[in-house]
Amino acid sequence: MPSIQTKSAAAATQAERTPDPCVVVIFGASGDLTKRKLLPALYHLEQAGLLPEKISVVGVARRPLEKTFAPDMKEGIIAGGGVEESDPKLDPFVAKIQYHAMNFDDASGYEALKTKLAQIDKDNGTCGNRLFYLATAPEYFSDIIKYLGEHGMAKPANATAPDGCKTWVRTIIEKPFGHDLESARALNDEVNKVFEEDQIFRIDHYLGKETVQNILVFRFANGIFENVWNRNYIDHVEITAAESIGIEGRGPFYETAGALRDVVQNHVMELLSFVAMEPPVSFEASSVRAEKVKVWKAITPIHPADTVRGQYGPGAVDGKPVVGYRQEDRVHPRSQTETYAAVRLEIENWRWAGVPFYIRAGKRLSKRVTEITIQFKQPPLLLFKDHEGKGAEGIKPNVISMRIQPDEGIALRFGAKVPGPNMNISPVTMDFSYAEAFGKSSANGYERLLLDAMLGDGTLFAHRDGVEATWALITPILEAWAKDPIKDLPNYAAGTWGPPAADAMLKSDGRKWRKL
After folding, report:
1. How many CB atoms lie within 10 A of CB 108?
2. d(C-alpha 87, C-alpha 64), whole Å
3. Which of 39, 112, 339, 387 has its CA 20 to 30 A from that of 146?
């Protein structure tokens, strides 16, 4: 295999990519996200030399975990971050982790937190800079934002720190950001009363994945692809976000979410925008966000007939029997919540008019895979036929497939002649693997997003206009589904690729889902 020339960007950009001294405050720090993802991600940045020397982490939650929080986070960094316990940077980093116990609706707790952060500034030189990370359940977002504002923590205490550096306060808000268009607008209004829009970083961890960011590089840094990235050459686009796992004990959450809210409105719509957007004038946040919003607003209203919903029943995954959704813990025995959603949509602009986009997302499918498939049109003349008109069966459409996870990579399918005296054609694949080219990485996707938030770079975060644009597309589907319950749920067995109606939707267009 030919070698691929790469270089480390960390050394070249360390000086300009190192944030100011700051305190990272994580609300909901006793939850799984902090231990498995956020602290390992912060430590990976520390290992790479991308964190400021003067940084502190404060976990905030309701339980009294002052004595156990930092050691517990150390275990998470080791187990979830692929870190050796003997790593010389580990203990000094853990020494920067503190804990603050409070209820999220307790005003006195915020005043005590404010005092604690001021003391950290004094002791550690963190300049009054704050990154508040809301890793709580969505019902606490409004209270936390309100109290941060009321207690004077949403704006820098001083315009500049004693050493002359400009101070800042920012907040990261986890998904789900609302559960429909109305609630998303209301939450946006509440947040914008306290924080300016450039202080708000609505996070979607999918955008932290290198494979997602590479979609833009693949398209706009390679002249051979962008020229054919349009309705003249592309037949259709598929986006699949499949999981083999079930709801993993999150019955109450999933009962109020479902696949359309949980995956399609955010993850899948973000992937779609990267595939379909026009070249931005620059890769500054405002330019990229503007092009993404243009895509979402160009999508024609989605008719309920162009949607499919499903719910998994009992079946087998990886040879092991699993229960159906309605038998999961804390799920209603007659639940109408969809664990599978498929949508056909079109983008009415000059580049994409007439090109269907098929998207699907689901739980308990055959395997875990997120992939984007670009299928090109067949050539206008099939020249390679014998005197009986046969021999063209091997000519398959050209396909570019972008594997977001797992086995990250990009593949191109094209036709090649089979050796021999006859003109027989066989599809072959050129396959690029991230792991083979760049080595396996222990990064979980949050590294880039946390770093960008500390730097104030909102390129990979959602703006309120984008959040509301995607909810405007999804909410009418949710409303139509609520008015039209399905009587035959569950309608697909666990371990399959979803309900037959999803296959029928593509078959009616003369197409079929790509085998993954």
Report:
1. 10
2. 29
3. 39
The per-residue DSSP string of 111-160 comes to: HHHHHHHHHHHHHH--TT-EEEEE-S-GGGHHHHHHHHHHTT-SS-SSSB
Cβ–Cβ under 8 Å, residues 406 and 242: no
Please give the pLDDT value at position 449: 94
The closest alpha carbon to 128, from 98, 101, 163, 99, belongs to: 163
Quick one: which of 463, 458, 478 has its CA closest to 182? 478
Catalytic residue among 179, 267, 387, 463: 267
In angstroms, rounded to a whole number, what is the distance separating the alpha carbons of residues 91 and 169?
Answer: 27
Single-letter amino acid code for the residue at 125: G
Produce one character per residue of 76-102: b if its CB has 16 or more CB atoms within 10 Å, e if not: bbbebbebeeeeeebeebbebbbbbbb
> Please, what is the end-to-end C-alpha distance for the chain in angstroms?
25
Examine the residue annotation and report whether 267 is marked as an active-site residue of this protein: yes
- Strand pairing partners for 170? 131
User: Whole-angstrom Cα distance, residue 145 to residue 466?
Assistant: 21
Tell me the pairing of strands 356-362 and 234-242. Answer: parallel
The per-residue pLDDT for 490 is 96
> What single DSSP character describes residue 515?
P
Give the integer Cα–Cα distance in Å for 355 and 347.
7
Confidence category of residue 60, pLDDT binned at 50, 70, 90: very high
What are the distances in angstroms from CA 223 to CA 73, 218, 228, 451? 45, 9, 9, 30
Which one-letter amino acid corresponds to residue 412? L
Helix count and strand count (H, E) for the chain: 18, 18
What are the tokens at 369?
């895979």
**CB-count exposure of residue 158 (10 Å: 0-12, 13-18, 19+):** exposed
Q: Which amino acid is present at 162? A: P
Give pLDDT, residue 75.
93
The two tokens of residue 418 are 């089979």
Number of C-beta neighbours around residue 497 at 10 A:
19
Write down the residue that tokens 């038998």 correspond to: 327
- pLDDT at position 10 is 40
Within 13 A of 233's CA, how many CA atoms are on the CB side? 11
Render pLDDT for 181-193 as a digit per residue (tens, 0 to 9): 999 999 999 999 9
378 CB contacts (<8 Å, ≥6 apart)?
A: 235, 395, 397
Q: What is the pLDDT of residues 249-305, one digit of tens each?
A: 889 999 999 999 999 999 999 999 999 999 999 888 899 999 999 999 999 999 999
CA pair distance 382, 118, nearest whole angstrom: 73
SS3 228: coil
Strands 409-417 and 425-433: antiparallel
Provide the 3-class DSSP secondary structure of residue 366.
coil
Sequence-separated (6 or more) residues with CB below 8 Å from residue 224: none
Is the Cβ–Cβ distance between 255 and 331 less than 8 Å?
yes
pLDDT at 73 over 90: yes
